[in-house]
Amino acid sequence: MGFKKLLASLGAGGASVETVLTEANVVPGGVVQGEVRIQGGNVDQQIEALSVGLQARVEVEGNDQETKQDIEFTKQRLGGAFELKANAVHAVPFGLDIPWETPITHFAGRQLHGMNIGVTTELEIARAVDSGDLDPVNVHPLPAQQAVLDAFGQLGFRFKSADMERGHIRGTRQKLPFYQEIEFFPPEQYRGLNQVELTFVADDREMDVVLEMDKKPGLFSEGSDSYKSFKVGLHDYQGTDWAAYLNEWLSQVGSKRNWF
């Protein structure tokens, strides 16, 4: 983004700020590198605090309605207070850690629609705080996540949509206040299914993979969901045929319920 004038309500002398990401492509557990550049105004100003963080726009359900909420899920302060001289440019480099649970925003060479994740910049002057624009970050799958996603593709599943929802999935290692769901359309061989939803919850060693199988509503019954969760090591996932593993579970559940 270009320089943005901050704290205009404070009158003349307001600083402006620009955040530049040197590499916007990352994976969970990685680091976003960048630099915050602050342009001084007409007078010297005391900068009390400068920080960067990661923000996601998530869905919040309640009172029979769905709203969107911006959640900052990590934050890093960049040094202490300093004086910004008039018309001077003060540059502060940073490396912002990406939490292992961070949802992916890109898959199979495409950006997942609705995945709004980016770096926020916050500048504090004279006890007033103003934030800059969101600088998008492209979060790509970890190799273990890619292996599971590829397995769905090998079975003929097609990407439908993705979203981020506020809440917690019980029985997982989740620490963030929200999680991602990636939805797939099933191929013809799973004709009793409406869709399958996939969630990753990772840490630095392994990840929980949570699947939700959505059955098509029948003539005399409403749709029902079946769930499965399993753990995948981030460094020893190569020994499993994930397409065969997923197909076996889908086929077992489907045949027991006469879906397929």
Number of helical regions: 2
- Summing up helix and strand content along with how strands pair, one would put the structural category as mainly beta
- Low-pLDDT sequence parts: 1-12, 217-224
Strand content range? over 45%
InterPro entries: Spore_0_M
Protein name: Sporulation protein
Pfam family, one: Spo0M
Layout: helices, strands, pairs:
Elements: E1 4-5, E2 16-23, E3 25-26, E4 31-39, E5 45-62, E6 65-77, E7 82-84, E8 89-97, E9 106-107, E10 110-111, E11 117-125, E12 128-131, E13 135-136, E14 138-139, H1 143-154, E15 158-166, E16 178-185, E17 193-202, E18 206-215, E19 225-233, H2 242-256
Parallel strand pairs: 3-14
Antiparallel strand pairs: 1-2, 2-4, 4-8, 5-6, 5-7, 5-11, 9-10, 11-12, 11-13, 15-16, 16-17, 17-18, 18-19
Helix pairs in contact: 1-2
Walk me through what this model shows.
There is one protein chain. The chain has 260 residues and is mainly beta. It has two domains: 4-139, Immunoglobulin-like (Sandwich); 143-256, no CATH class. Helix content is 10%, strand content 50%. The chain is built from two helices and 19 strands. The protein has helices spanning 143-154, 242-256, and strands spanning 4-5, 16-23, 25-26, 31-39, 45-62, 65-77, 82-84, 89-97, 106-107, 110-111, 117-125, 128-131, 135-136, 138-139, 158-166, 178-185, 193-202, 206-215, 225-233. The strands form five sheets. Strands 5, 6, 7, 11, 12 and 13 form a six-stranded antiparallel sheet that branches. A five-stranded antiparallel sheet has the order 15-16-17-18-19, covered by helices on one side. Strands 1-2-4-8 form a four-stranded antiparallel sheet, with no helix packed on it. A hairpin with a 7-residue loop joins β16 and β17. α1 packs across α2 (242-256). The longest helix has 15 residues, at 242-256. It is elongated. The N and C termini lie far apart (51 Å). The relative contact order is 0.15. This is Sporulation protein. It comes from Streptomyces flavofungini. InterPro entries: Spore_0_M (IPR009776).
